[in-house]
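Objective 1.3, modelling of assemblies. Example input:
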Amino acid sequence: MEAGALFTLRDQARAERFQKLLLAWAPDRPVKIVHVCGTHEITIAQHGLRSLLPENVEVLEGPGCPVCVTSTQDFDCALQLAERGAILCTFGDMTRVPGTRMTLEEARAEGADVRVVLSAADAVEVARRNPQKPVVFFAVGFETTAPGTAAVLLDHPPDNFYVLVSHKLIPPALEALLSTPPVEISAFLAPGHVSTVIGAGAYRGIAARFHVPIVVAGFEPLDILFAIALVLRQLKEGRAEVENAYPRSVTEAGNLRAQALLREVFAVGPALWRGIGEIPGSGLYLREEFAKHDAKREFGVEGRVGEEKPPGCRCSDVLMARAVPTDCPFYGHACTPLTPIGPCMVGAEGACNIWYRYGGRPRL
Amino acid sequence: MCLAIPVRVVAVEGNVATVDMGGSRAKARLDALGEPVQVGDYLLVHAGFAIRRLDPQDAEETLRLWDELLSLTDT
Ligand code: SF4
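Predicted structure (tokens):
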């Protein structure tokens, strides 16, 4: 059977029963549930799930878009590498993000060789086919994407293959959101695919320390309603635990092989998140053994911090889960996917981009 | 970018699987998986790398979990 059909678990009757359950467990005070995953936001917006929630339950996307949180410093490094004659390979949305001297797309129009790839393995292919040129893979993404970068580095890539590493880790970002006052977050939905790699157990310390419920959620509409129901039940009962609402993909320990790849190739250090600032222990850095593939080191690029966000853009508040896209005066007027002002309108996982695509504030 | 899609394996060669992705063929690397893969298996693939083998029985298990919770309001 086709995989899509087998793992798509949709049915109207269960959706209605979930809605009844959510109303039965409606909290007696305003509740703000934050997820950190563009794919969650797409499911929520596409299926109008906010319209099924009790009046006082809000669900917001925090820093769940890797393209949106990539620092302007790293973009500046990429730009410098492309201008110095390297072939720069990266994921699609990365080429259109504003905030440095120019976007990578504009650099390409001026003659730089910027290419869109779908996988780290594709970037290695580009390096094999162009042995006379340095090829740099601008590696962004969370724990889901980083194992692929690690795998190609362990698989003896050619000498002309370099990585500009901008991978980031999700749990330290949750901690940062919970440590930056004013904190109004009642609970988190943890991202299902990041959790497939790191395991539900990775959040236990945070849930206990900050006394916040964390429920790992899948990506089908009913997966999300199920996870929200578990959150509301925890809040009702005064519990703050990690619950796994996506056990068909997530285990307690996660994907040990992928974790081993990450440990073998990367060390952990502080990273700059656009719109949020520096988060300790949230970035991945190449270990010494891979130094000859480290683009920053080999080419001595530093990167300047550019415009964090254009004046008036509320991306920082959106990424901190303190605002929704429609709170921004530019949303849908000056700022659209064709004329993006901030990174949240560029990335296909950015909240502004998703809300725009699925028609504004999806609460009926 | 964290979009991961369930696909069906149609061929395996070394650490690369050929997969059926809603009717079209694609390659998925198996380096990050850490378990053997056979033709007919279902994988969750993210940015060209499989991150999890999916068991169709787990889909049924999910429905059971949902119904268990949902039954709480039926009384
Ligand atoms: S609508 Fe545009 S300008 Fe406003 S917060 Fe979103 S990306 Fe920034």
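DSSP finds 16 helices and eleven strands in chain A.
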